[in-house]
Specification:
Elements: H1 3-9, E1 31-36, E2 41-44, H2 50-55, E3 64-68, H3 73-83, H4 87-94, E4 101-104, E5 109-119, E6 124-134, E7 139-143, H5 148-159, H6 161-164, H7 169-204, H8 208-240, H9 248-313, H10 329-350
Parallel strand pairs: 3-7
Antiparallel strand pairs: 1-2, 1-3, 4-5, 5-6, 6-7
Length: 354
C-alpha cells in the first residue's frame, strides 16, 4: 500500500464530517496566535480564548487568528465550535491532500489552497496546505506546518501600517492570496530555468541522466499545475460571489489575482509542452543512434556475406576442384575477396552510407 493510500485508510467507513487528520505525521503542539498587522507582531493565545479575543476588538483592529498545525482534532473541533464552522469544512481543513477549492457559505467564505516551496537546493517542489476562513468580523488561517508565507505577509503588511488602518479582514485575505500567487511566479521561473538548462544538455548529449531530469521536471510541473489550476477555479468562484464579507471596493483585487493565475497556468502549460517535446527529442535521438548502429552492422554483414559465400564454396569437400590445385589459387582468392570488399566500400561511400 502506498504512503498516500495509507493516509486515507483511516477515513474509510467514517461518516462525512469526521475529523481525521490526513497528511504527514506530526507530533508538535498546535499553536494559536492573534496577528496584529498594525504593530507587526503576533501574540500567542489560549484555545479557549479565541472567540473572546475576537469579541474584544479594539477600535478598527483587524481580527486575524492563525492556527499553526491542523493535526490535532481536539483543537480544530474547538475552533469550529467557537466560530460555528461546518463539520465538512473542518474535515477539509484536516485533510492536507484536499484539492484546492473555495466554498461560499451563509456567513463566511472558505478556501483551501497549496503553498509551494523549493527544497533540495531549489531542485524539488514541495507543497503545504493553507486554509482560510473569512467572515465580516474575523479571518482564520490554518497552516499545515511552519511556512515563511505567513511571516512574509505579516512583515509586508506592517510596512504598510498607515494604509492598513483603513482596511478590513477581506483585504488581508486578498493579500494572502496575492502573495501566494506571486510565489507561484517565482517557483515557475526557477523551474523554467532548469528546463532551459535541460534543453541545452539535451542538444549536447543523450544519456540516461538527461532522461531522468526531463521526467523529474515533468513531475515538478505536474505538482505546480495541481496547485494552480484548481485555485484559479476557486478564485473565480470568489470573484463571482456576492458575499457580504468582501467589500465592493476590494472585489476588483480578486480580478487581478485571477488574471495572474491565468498567466501562470498558460506558462505552466507551455513549459509542460516543452518537456513533452524534449522527451520526443530524446526518444528520436535514441532511435537515430539505434539506426546508426544498425547501419554499421548492415554494412559489415553486406561485406562479409559475399566473402562467406566464396569461402564456403572452396570449403566444400569435392574431390575435383581445379582451382585448389592452381599454384597461385590461394592468392587469387584473396585478390577476389579484397576486390569485393573495396568495391562494396566504394559503393557504400558513393551512396553516402559511410
Amino acid at each position: 500500500m502506498t504512503e498516500q493510500n495509507t493516509k486515507y485508510a483511516k477515513k474509510i467507513g467514517l461518516p462525512p464530517g469526521s475529523l481525521v487528520y490526513v497528511g504527514t505525521k506530526r507530533t508538535e503542539k498546535v499553536s494559536i496566535a492573534k496577528i496584529d498587522v498594525s504593530k507587526g507582531f503576533s501574540e500567542e493565545i489560549e484555545l479557549s480564548n479565541i472567540s473572546d479575543s475576537i469579541k474584544k476588538r479594539k477600535d478598527n483592529a483587524i481580527n486575524w487568528i492563525n492556527i499553526h498545525g491542523v493535526h490535532d482534532a481536539t483543537v480544530i473541533k474547538s475552533v469550529g465550535k467557537q466560530f460555528n464552522i461546518d463539520s465538512l469544512v473542518l474535515e477539509a481543513i484536516m485533510n492536507t491532500e484536499q484539492r484546492p477549492g473555495a466554498e461560499v457559505l451563509d456567513n463566511y467564505l472558505f478556501i483551501t489552497l497549496k503553498m509551494l516551496k523549493l527544497t533540495n537546493s531549489d531542485k524539488d517542489v514541495a507543497t503545504e496546505q493553507l486554509s482560510l476562513i473569512l467572515s465580516q468580523n474575523y479571518l482564520l488561517s490554518f497552516e499545515e506546518s511552519g511556512s515563511d508565507i505567513i511571516g512574509i505577509i505579516e512583515k509586508r503588511l506592517h510596512l504598510e501600517k498607515e494604509n492598513i488602518q483603513t482596511k478590513r479582514e477581506d483585504y488581508i485575505f486578498y493579500r494572502m492570496l496575492d502573495t501566494i500567487v506571486d510565489n507561484y511566479y517565482l517557483i515557475a521561473d526557477t523551474i523554467g530555468e532548469q528546463i532551459e538548462q535541460t534543453e541545452e544538455d539535451l542538444l549536447k548529449k543523450h544519456d540516461d541522466n538527461t532522461y531522468k531530469e526531463i521526467y523529474k521536471l515533468k513531475k515538478e510541473m505536474a505538482i505546480i499545475n495541481k496547485a494552480i489550476v484548481p485555485l484559479k477555479d476557486a478564485v473565480s468562484t470568489i470573484k463571482k460571489s456576492d458575499i457580504d464579507c468582501i467589500s465592493e471596493a476590494n472585489k476588483k483585487y480578486f480580478n487581478n489575482v485571477f488574471e495572474h493565475l491565468v498567466q501562470i497556468t498558460e506558462e505552466i502549460e507551455f513549459q509542460y509542452n516543452k518537456l513533452n517535446d524534449f522527451l520526443n527529442m530524446y526518444m528520436s535521438g535514441l532511435s537515430n543512434k539505434m539506426n546508426e548502429i544498425m547501419q554499421v552492422l548492415t554494412i559489415f554483414a553486406s561485406i562479409f556475406i559475399p566473402l562467406t559465400f566464396i569461402a564456403g564454396i572452396y570449403g566444400m569437400n569435392f574431390d575435383f576442384m581445379p582451382e585448389l590445385h592452381l599454384k597461385y589459387g590461394y592468392y587469387i582468392i584473396w585478390g577476389v575477396m579484397t576486390a569485393v570488399v573495396v568495391g562494396l566500400l566504394f559503393y557504400f561511400k558513393r551512396k553516402k552510407w559511410l
